Amino acid sequence: MSKWSDKFNALPKDIRYIGSMLEAELRIQHLKFELARLKKQYQQSCAEIKSHIARCENRLRTEDKDNG
After folding, report:
1. pLDDT (0 to 100) of residue 6
2. Domains in the chain: how many in total?
3. Which SS3 state, helix, strand or coil, does residue 44 take?
4. From residue 24, how far is each of 17, 19, 30, 33, 48 by CA, in Å?
5. pLDDT digit string (tens) for the chain, length 68 residues
6. Which domain holds residue 61?
7. Is 64 left (phi over 0), alpha (psi -120 to 50) or beta?
8. Who contacts 44 (Cβ-Cβ below 8 Å, separation ≥6)?
């Protein structure tokens, strides 16, 4: 164990409980931030793909008109 683990384990049980709950809350907060970041990145990727699809479809329509 690290010196920090030893120091944490030497604390009274109620203090360790509070520290553990705080750590859990912080972990949840960080995970929510990461989830929001990933969702934003996903939405941007979807928008880029949809835009590319639209450009390709427009090109196909233009070519059909020119060759039709």
Report:
1. 92
2. 1
3. helix
4. 11, 9, 10, 14, 36
5. 689 899 999 999 999 999 999 999 999 999 999 999 999 999 999 999 999 999 999 999 988 777 76
6. 3-67
7. alpha
8. none
